[in-house]
# Entry
Amino acid sequence: MKDFVIFDMEWNMGYQPKIFQYQGIDQTLRGEIIQIGAVKLENGRVADRFSINLKPHIFPKLHHHVAKVTGLTQADLDVGIPIQEGLRRFMEWCGPDAVLGEWGLDDVPVLKQNMVLNGLSEEWPQQWYDIQRIFTSQKPRKEGEGMTLEAVVERLGIPKNEAFHDALSDAEYTAAICGFLNLEQGLQEYPSEEQQLHDLLCPAEKDRRDFTIWRGIVDGEVWTTSQELRQAVCPECGQPLQLDSEDIWLRKGNNCLYSMGQCSSHGPVMIWLRRMRLDGLRYTFARVTEPADQTLQAKWKKEKQAAIERARRKKEHEAAEALERVRNAGR
# Structure
């Protein structure tokens, strides 16, 4: 295996959001890194450690919530290594081919955004894994069990000798959890982004077909306008589906859209779109189709009508507010 690095980060946030452009598309900065902690694993044991405090330049003032959670102070930030230099040191310590692991999937997206904003290679790292996902696959969560790093450390009986929400301490706790796992097997079985999307869109109990995927899309809202993503074909005969005449697409959570299309030969077909962004910069989209039986058609009709009614009420409310503002301005 290539060098396997378990890492953790803490980052600062602003009292106002920071919008930046990436390939011409507005992006919201998730946070500016102020601390990195990491350990290298060799044969399941810690072989080296890395710890650094960084001096931010986009959000130079320590947010009160970050201070409360991490215990860091404004003085810690002010004497930190300039963030570009600190990120470069971390890259060099890890090595160009390092494989990274983290608890959850929050840190790599923040790392990638910070790399871009500091003029460093956005292609690094190329491989990373969610240790929490491997843990839950090998040690399924029981009812009532928490999945925070601290909850799992306590469940496993790992000594809590260091404070949580310190980057190096959290990296070492995550490495300790790896000692309870068949890590090599977990990495070998880890699903690709494509497989994760397929599993989400095509559960075994659903008759969903024609899984199609698009990678490397910067605009997360492209699915609201892209005919390429929306224009599906009938899963029975391959004819282009006639899309909903009112162009209504409903949301299921933040990352799924669906609508109903029609095939002249085989009737209604549900179209599902889903997006995923694992690297904080670019999205992957996937689409499937599902022949719509009577139950699915009735469900769609009900949900579509409810969406139309919500839109109508919203429009009326906005019109009433606008009229009230006009009246108040004239007084």
